[in-house]
Amino acid sequence: MATALDTGVLRRYFERMNSLPGWFLPDAALMFMAYNQLVSDRAVPGNTLEIGVYHGKSAIAVASLRGEAGIFTAIDVFDDLQSRDGSSHDVGLKGVFLANMAASFPTLNWMRPIVAPSSTVRAQTLGPQSFCHIDGLHSAEGTYGDMRLCAEVVVPGGLVALDDYFNQRFPGVSEGALSFERRHPGVLTPVAVGFNKVLFQRASESDLNERFAREFDYIPTNITTMWGRPVALFESPIVSCVDLDRSTPHRLVPRPESRLTMRATIEPGMVALSATRGQALTIPVRVVNRTTVDFGWSIGLSYHVFSSDGRVVRWDNPRSHFYPVLSPGAEQQVNLGVIAPEAEGAYTLELDMVWEGIAWFKDKGNRTSTIALTVN
């Protein structure tokens, strides 16, 4: 890679990702970049920090979020992990990390590795940071300490990302984070959840996710609640929404088709039906393509299941696709496969179109259709 401002940098980074050991999704990188872009629109980006860099898979993304004169700090014990990592004893884990960073940037004169446990690093050593990523010790004590350190150094409005909060293999992460919130209530506020990360903001903006919805209306999100406040929930991949060739880590550009109006007519051949528990059903549905793109393998017909009182019973269900491809303005009857719930009762099936990795048509304002289902 050249610099974080060059177009094409994301494409090259993501093409290298699979070859780098570690657990970091391209979608997580884009989530970091999108929120960092929003924050940077109101304050100049500065230094960035990552605790626990391993081979550098996520460090490349976090380093690219720094400001023009910013420093990226990497805190890791490095070669103390060598015996568990399997790296060459001639090179060592630190050497592997530095080599991966050097392959991604023309120079590293803006990077500061700190070879030490994060618990021994003081805020005065780090200075102010605009973005921090915590991926170090996954214990309760380690997570608490890392969140406290990042809360001390992140600037007002700055962001702190935490890895593995909802990972059942590492319950210490959520335990440590909740301990931090109890001792320092409101200092770091959750704003987004997705791709094995929770994103927090220092002195959070009340309209941050409203601005996200306006600026990134082509990226599908839902709303959930965490720590007593609404947060954005990312449930679908977002790489397919972004033009990787024209975007930079500081400015994401949508793929042209991501902003297309998502419209379709959905007309089921019945308004009500009955089934036994778990029965497989086939429902004829007339679909008219009212977009400007073909309905191919990536766009299908599906449904949501609601209880009689409106609660979601099962949101994500199998898709029925179009064969042949449904062209703009054309119509086709699709046999929608439906599996009845296992419990008896009254349900509502909401028929909806989905563009994989982009959004449900419903979330873009398209009208859905419903069928009353009675399970005996």
Describe the structure.
22% of the residues lie in helices and 30% in strands. The protein has 376 residues and is of the alpha/beta class. The chain folds into two domains: 9-257, Vaccinia Virus protein VP39 (Rossmann fold, 3-Layer(aba) Sandwich); 260-375, Immunoglobulins (Immunoglobulin-like, Sandwich). The strands form three sheets. It has a nine-stranded mixed beta sheet with strand order 3-2-1-4-5-7-6-9-8, sandwiched between helices. Strands 11, 13, 14, 16, 17 and 18 form a six-stranded mixed beta sheet that branches. A three-stranded antiparallel beta sheet has the order 10-12-15, with no helix packed on it. The model is unreliable at 81-91 (pLDDT under 50).
Which secondary structure elements does this structure contain, and how are they paired or packed?
Blueprint: H1 9-17, H2 26-40, E1 48-51, H3 59-64, E2 72-76, H4 82-85, H5 92-102, E3 111-115, H6 123-126, E4 129-134, H7 140-153, E5 154-163, H8 171-183, E6 188-194, E7 197-202, H9 208-215, E8 222-226, E9 229-234, E10 264-268, E11 272-275, E12 280-289, E13 299-307, E14 312-314, E15 331-339, E16 345-355, E17 359-360, E18 369-375
Parallel strand pairs: 1-2, 1-4, 2-3, 4-5, 6-9, 11-18
Antiparallel strand pairs: 5-7, 6-7, 8-9, 10-12, 12-15, 13-14, 13-16, 16-17, 16-18
Helix pairs in contact: 2-9, 7-8
